[in-house]
Known about the structure:
Elements: H1 2-27, H2 38-64, H3 69-84, H4 91-98, H5 105-114, H6 123-136, H7 139-142, H8 145-165, H9 168-197, H10 201-227, H11 230-243, H12 249-260, E1 266-271, E2 276-278, E3 295-301, E4 304-311, H13 319-391, H14 396-420, H15 423-428, H16 430-439, E5 445-449, H17 456-477, E6 482-489, E7 492-499, H18 511-522, E8 526-530, E9 538-544
Parallel strand pairs: 5-6
Antiparallel strand pairs: 1-2, 1-4, 3-4, 6-7, 7-9, 8-9
Amino acid sequence: xxxxxxxxxxxxxxxxxxxxxxxxxxLHRPSFAVAASAQEQRLAAADFVVGGAxxxxxxxxxxxxxxxxxxxxxxxxxxxxxxxxxxxxFTSVAAVGAYFVALHRGPLVHAVVSYPDGRLSRxxxxxxxxxAYAISAIALIGQSAGTRLGLAVLLAxxxxxxxxxxxxxxxxxxxxxxxxxxxxxxxxxxxGVAGLAEAGDATDRAVLWAYEAVIVLVAVVFGLDxxxxxxxxxxxxxxxxxxxxxxxEGVLRExxxxxxxxxxxxxxxxxxxxxxxxxxxxxxxxxxxxDSTRGVTTxxxxxxxxxxxxxxxxxxxxxxxxxxxAAAVRVAVANVRLQREIRRQAETLTxxxxxxxxxxxxxxxxxxxxxxxxxxxxxxxxxxxxxxAEADGADPVALAETLGELAAARTxxxxxxxxxxPRLLTEHGLPAALADLARRAPVPVAxxxxxxxxxxxxxxxxxxxxxxxxxxVAKHAHASRAAITVVRTNGRLLMSVRDDGTGGAEPAGxxxxxxxADRVEALGGRFAIDSPPGVGTTVSAELRL
Length: 545
């Protein structure tokens, strides 16, 4: 890494020497002294300042930060000086320079739209930068007035789009990039308009001075801002925001790779059981040796390993960025594990609620069977004994009264048994049980029920939804009619009970409706009540088959 930094710094004297040679060739004099006009000397000096500013800013940025904008500015500086040879009085040198006259716009546009980290994470910026490199590499197209105007419009639009999509510290950094993009776009547009209007030399020189001033300003401002380290802050802030709602490991890797601009990035999660890092698919992620071309960053929580990042070594060269990314990944992994545990507990709770509902239904069926087989049997035996006593000359009035009470007791017992769990539901299924329920309702009930048996928990839930809804119709609705619909569609059981009563029912107004909602939701379904005042009430539920 140290050798790389020294190599970057070594580019500065090489670039400045190239600039001196380009301006000397432009003036076609052994020095900048007398023979060239003052105006030519000023133009040459300004040209040198522009290329020098790009080189110095790029080298300083690269030395003080790991942003990729630094090398882009260096590349733009070299391309600028190569293009300066196009104005040389030496024919052969000018012919070579003509090929590079607009080449600097490719890396310059790249630096502006990818600021502050130098990475192209959006599709629109990738397309714009590709187009900028392509047209700047072709002299005739790159110098065309229409091309400059079109590039200016695209640059402004893409920069504005990137700014709108950014947040937090990244948005503050993008504000600077937006200003630079708009300034550069304005300078390019001015040149394009002047070219289309075929303005005079004075206008062309004014446009050139403005263009050069914008480039110097961009280089200086970017250099100062990058040296202060804002690019790392913006990258980490954007990363933390993106990772804040990561729902699973695969998304974590994808967002991390996008934020850092390293599509080759891989992440492994430490498995204490396997004593190894495992990727999103549960496969072992082997870390490379120390001399590998791949970089490795391990993330720990105290003495406990959490994860490992396998990446391009240049991605996390900056220590501050590396530490901040590790902290963000640590929080995101903890978030993923917490969400996984919450889902596991929610699934356990759902299964537990379902078991409770099914156990309650089993107990209801047992009680109904006990009442029917034992208690009702005893009452029938008592009835036969009383009938025998009447034949033996017992008081007929007393016996008649006793038999009447006994018959009422058997009727109430039957109603109680049906309320606990109807015998028809157990023996003949939901259609028969609902038909009996509709027959005993106090208002006419229209039935539309799909035939066939269902799993016992679903039949019980559907029956009690309809039973409780009809009970409410009788007690509160003042309705003249009702309708029950139970149909199967797309793997779902849909049920509804509608009446034409007064409406205004409150879902939380009674324990019966709340109990129904709990029963339905425990089976993974949905329960709802629609009861506008004066329109009637619809109780509906949906269960998975």
